[in-house]
Every structure is written in structure tokens, then in C-alpha cells.
Amino acid sequence: MATEDKKVIITINDVDYTEDQLTDAQKLMVNHFNSLQQKINSAKFNLDQLQVDCQAFVDILTASLAVATVANPLIVTDDEERAAAQAVVDGTPQPVKDAV
Description:
Layout: E1 9-12, E2 15-18, H1 24-65, H2 73-91, H3 94-99
Antiparallel strand pairs: 1-2
């Protein structure tokens, strides 16, 4: 049982060629094209990964900014006492302030 050599068919502008129909320069151009297609596909794959990673960092940042800040009750009380004291000072007549 003899095995047939299967020839690689290269289609350019809807015309099929076998490798032996191409010149060495044309074969080189086909090889360059195939290599560039692989690089483009690899770059697209890497870009997809980078975009997902970038979005993950945006999501982490957004989540960290959304964390509610809980005020310390002691500081809140202190701020309220300071505001009340300032209101007393502001309400004191100027002659009384000058006398002190």
C-alpha cells in the first residue's frame, strides 16, 4: 500500500498553489506571513490578559474607595464639645472678651 505525498496547498487571492509552484522568494514571503500571523495572535492573547488584569486593578481600587469610614466615637464627641465651646465663645460679647 503506497502512501501519497500530500502537498500543502497555499491559497493567495482565492488561487491555490502548491509549494513547488512558488519561487524561493515567494515561499519566504509565505513564511513571513505565517510567522506574523502567529505573532499577531499571540499579541492579541497577551492583550486580552493585560486588559483583564487592568480591570481587576480598577475593581480592587473601586472597592477600596467604597469602604465606609467609621468615625471614632471619642473624636466625634470631642468635635461636638469643641463646637459647643466655640459657640459659647462666639456668643460672648466683645467687651467681656476684651476684659479677660
